[in-house]
Amino acid sequence: MLSVKISFAPHVGHQTPLVELVETPSTVEISLEDGAHTFQSEDVDVGKFTAFGNRRLLGRLVFGYVYDEARHTVTVCGTDFASADGLRLVTFPAGTEECCYHRAAGSAGFLADDLMGNRHWNCRTPLTVGVDEVLRGMARAANESLIAALKSLPGLIVRVRTTPPEISPDDYQKLLVVYRDGVFQGLYEPGAELGPQDEVVTIESVWGGTVHFSVGEAFANVIGSTNDPRIAGKTWINLWADQFGVYPNICTSYHFNGFNCGTSFVGGHIITGTVAHTMPKGSDSVYIMPICQPHNHNDNVFMEALEYQDGIWLKDYLGGP
Ligand SMILES: [Zn+2]
Ligand SMILES: [Zn+2]
């Protein structure tokens, strides 16, 4: 089991004719169990109904996660990832089961069901103007605190589900690959004739999100991945740069164990641990980190996450049928 404590609060107090949201931060203890689960926190006070004898408005955090204890890896949704597993703050007047759902990702859920489905406790009414925005802000703050708290745990690998960064249609095309009758053909060529035996694999189908490693986490090459034409074509490193907003100027494992690093970099396919090996197509634990060419071509040494802690997580290595 894994435990962290997080605090979250509305950034501002908020008062409407029906309800008053309090600025006091709430602290909840979060315990994650091995496997795929939905976490539900204990209830905390988020406000009171001033017109109804100060009846308490309670809230609890709910989110889906996967914790792989053996691989010391936890996977949660990013704050803008509009998934049913994403974190939501569930609010309800004390003593009732009338719940509103304030989802961290603004585009997630169904407003009529989430915020207007009860007999009494509803947001988006003339008496609750702005309440949902404040409570959704709390949910977003809680998710950010959760991710930060997980990243601060030594030795834990934290994967955050996201959508790929915005890339130009041109770069997007360069990330498409073609399979014919299940056999990898290479990069998609604009204008190429494709038939029913062909399958085009998009970046969305292999992209899982981001991964965060502790300083000194050991990793090694995925043997065989240098055949991926997207490596030589620099497309993976550009994607890494688009994701993290900086172009790498040093090898992640710079001079580790006296290794003589190069000055040009690729987005290398890596796995955690100290031994390079092949990975089956479809593996969900291959990552992209910026490494130098000599490191990328050397399967006899392992590396450590020293200069960069964040990489791209591929949920479906090589993808394809
Ligand atoms: Zn990070
Ligand atoms: Zn290097």
Protein model, in words:
By secondary structure, the chain is α+β, with helices and mostly antiparallel strands. The protein has helices at residues 111-115, 131-151, 169-174, 203-206, 229-232, 235-244, 293-296, and strands at 2-8, 14-15, 20-21, 26-32, 35-40, 44-49, 55-68, 73-77, 88-93, 100-103, 157-161, 177-180, 183-187, 198-201, 207-212, 218-221, 265-272, 286-292, 303-304, 310-314. The chain folds into 2 domains: 2-159, no CATH class; 205-314, no CATH class. Helices cover 17% and strands 34% of the residues. The strands form 3 sheets. It has a 15-stranded mixed sheet that branches. A 3-stranded antiparallel sheet has the order 13-12-14. It has a two-stranded antiparallel sheet with strand order 1-4. The longest helix has 21 residues, at 131-151. The model has no long low-confidence stretch (mean pLDDT 92). Bound molecules: zinc ion (ZN) (2 copies). The site of one zinc ion has 8 residues, from strand 18.
Biggest sheet overview: 15 strands, mixed
Helix run count:
7
How much helical structure, as a percent, in the residues?
10-25%
Structural class: alpha+beta
CA radius of gyration: 23 Å
Question: TL;DR?
Answer:
This protein has helices at residues 111-115, 131-151, 169-174, 203-206, 229-232, 235-244, 293-296; strands at residues 2-8, 14-15, 20-21, 26-32, 35-40, 44-49, 55-68, 73-77, 88-93, 100-103, 157-161, 177-180, 183-187, 198-201, 207-212, 218-221, 265-272, 286-292, 303-304, 310-314.
